[in-house]
Amino acid sequence: MIKLHDKYFKPFISAKEIDDVIQRLVIEIAEDVGDETPVFVGILNGSFMVVSDFVKKYPKPCEVTFIKLASYEGVKSTEDIQRLIGLTQDLTGRTVIILEDIIDSGNTLAEVHRIFENEKVKSLKIATLFYKPEAYKKDYKLHYVGIEIPNKFIVGFGLDYDGLGRNLPEIYQIKETQHMTNLVLFGPPGAGKGTQADFLKEKYHLVHISTGDVFRYNIKNETALGMLAKSYMDKGELVPDQVTIDMLNAEVEKNTDANGFIFDGFPRTNAQAEALEKLMDSKDSQINAMIALEVDDEILVERLLSRGKTSGRADDADESIIRNRIAEYYDKTAILKDFYSSQNKYFGVDGVGSIDEITVRLSAVIDNL
Ligand code: IMP
Ligand code: MG
């Protein structure tokens, strides 16, 4: 992964792949051109690398020239194309092949056609290394296309993001979600997980996703996923992991500009941890840490019993029920502790002390990720 200005990019097309594609374009074009001496016209700035590699491979005599246009601002194509350097030689009667690094909206190409409108060239053909079909809004024919790519911003091999990245020999693609801190938060009943989650959410601008809340929300609002989940619950069956993951996915999708997520109540099994990993991966992200609040059993029992006195929650009133809940927690989370430990992502945090003391300990872990 690389960072240019404020954005992250991931490797997308290797230098070798680019080289193979250019070689293929050279063969196709050389065959079509035959014995003519073509004039290759590069569109600056982006095309300097593709033109250079292309003409080095071109097997027969050819001429090379450039025009310089500018249309992009940041990561968006603009309608307004500036003609910075136009044609500087007479191309009457010549076989002209435009060499573009990338064709996106086609606005630049429209300007190229305007430039050649009054030139009496013998033929004008368009070759481009990269082409984004979903972004293309024109109907000029593209005679030679190297690689069709999705409509996502790329850098490298001549292409830049606000001036940076042109020198990279391979292509990088912008990351769907920018850098996130994603936490899986654990704690036995009575550990103060809810209090700490609220604090972390504020301090790090994270979105707190509690599976319990997500379920209740989907069922209450009768979303398709909620109804599906309910149909299993009504039969007394466990809701399949995929349904839960689909709900979490919807929550993540709603918040793609978040700094990250706190997952609470999920995963509970190895299979779920793997599914969550896949979900994060599909968002170009990952789980950075499992943080577990560690509190001695006796202290938990004491805390819950005293909470039971004021809250009136039945499951907080009976000591043997409390002990069972705690035992069940350790039973269930042991597997996940192993799962995340094996990736060096498990962090146990001492959950005994004042709320402030514990938040300081949690922050120390997160600040170090
Ligand atoms: P168009 O005018 O929208 O077809 O865009 C063509 C020009 O925009 C290219 O010559 C590039 O300079 C720039 N461009 C389009 N897409 C990208 C991209 O993904 N990364 C970097 N530059 C791009
Ligand atoms: Mg260009």
From TrEMBL:
Subcellular location: Cytoplasm
EC number(s) from the headed UniProt entry: 2.7.4.3
Broad class of the protein's primary localization: cytoplasm
Reactions listed under catalytic activity: AMP + ATP = 2 ADP
Entry-linked CDD domains: ADK, PRTases_typeI
InterPro entries attached to this UniProt entry: Adenylat/UMP-CMP_kin, Adenylat_kinase_CS, P-loop_NTPase, PRTase-like, PRTase_dom
UniProt keyword terms in alphabetical order: ATP-binding, Cytoplasm, Kinase, Nucleotide biosynthesis, Nucleotide-binding, Transferase
Residues noted as binding ATP in the record, renumbered to the chain: 190-195, 307, 353
One GO MF term: AMP kinase activity
Main function: Catalyzes the reversible transfer of the terminal phosphate group between ATP and AMP. Plays an important role in cellular energy homeostasis and in adenine nucleotide metabolism.
Comment text on domains: Consists of three domains, a large central CORE domain and two small peripheral domains, NMPbind and LID, which undergo movements during catalysis. The LID domain closes over the site of phosphoryl transfer upon ATP binding. Assembling and dissambling the active center during each catalytic cycle provides an effective means to prevent ATP hydrolysis.
Protein's recorded name: Adenylate kinase
Native organism: Flavivirga algicola
Originating gene: adk
